[in-house]
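We modelled the chain as a single entity of 332 amino acids. Its sequence is:
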Amino acid sequence: ASRKAVVGQRELAAQAQRNAQEIAAYLRLLDSQDSDDDQGGEGPGGGPGAPDEVRAALKRLKAQGRAIANEAQQLMRSGASTVVRGEPEARPMRSLNSQPGYNLQTAVETQSHLIVAHEVVCEVSDQRQLQPMAEAASRVLEQPCTVVADAGYANGQQIAALQAQGITSYVAVNRSVNNQGDGSLYQPSAFVYDATSDSFTCPAGQLLQRKQLSRKNKMVIYAAQQSDCADCQRKAQCTTAKQRFVSRHLYEEALQANASRLAAQPWMMALRRQTVEHPFASIKHLILGNARLLMRHTSGARAEFSLAVMAYNLKRVFNMKGAAWMHQALRG
């Protein structure tokens, strides 16, 4: 789909307004023609303003108006900021310069480099794909697998859910830093968390107590007392605000455990690159051709992607096992 097919609430509102204006203009024309008929005048005959043609144009405009209204309602229900005409399940992808597309997911086994699970999703971000792809790979392998993923898949809730299933994760996580004061102020790691009191202790020994919960970001915000910060001799090293705030993720324990595993085995990220990049590049550029899907809607995209994955896996098995083995395997 073209970028021109991407419309948002503002564009839909403008189109609805133009549509209403055109309908009003045609209705005025019909009223004028009816008035001429009442006065015994002759109509325009078979010209472009003939009543039958005006009524046909009105019918088309009203149909367009209903379609615009349906798109606006669909946009409101989905909570998305845009809709793609002709491909409503697609989303404008940041990686494609806002070109509409789908998010293609693969899980690749590290030894054989075969794709063991794949999916087509309608989400721009990978943030909610770690758990479903890890679970799909584990089902295929018939055992809990070890998952390695880049920072785009970092999701504390899903890392914790996988850990509960015995699926170990190594996910690069971009943790928040205090970049105020040119990054010279105390970082969150300088504050000590106490689970019993659910509070932090700052480097000066003052308490930061729970202030609010952000369900959207799954973060708990802790704040120091303004009076404590105002009298603190280390305030210049800590914050430029009236008081210091520190946030903690709801699934901090799972994120910390993941970070510890990754720190102990940093080569896991190199293993990820060596495993997943080549299969995905082969599918994008050699099999699909410049990462273009030819089939429409998620059903068509899934069918096309499945064929691409099968083509890659067959080529991979051929390279690993050789022609004689492949011929014998195909004969059954």
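As a brief sanity check on the tokenised model: The mean pLDDT is 88. The CA atoms of residues 75 and 83 lie 6 Å apart.
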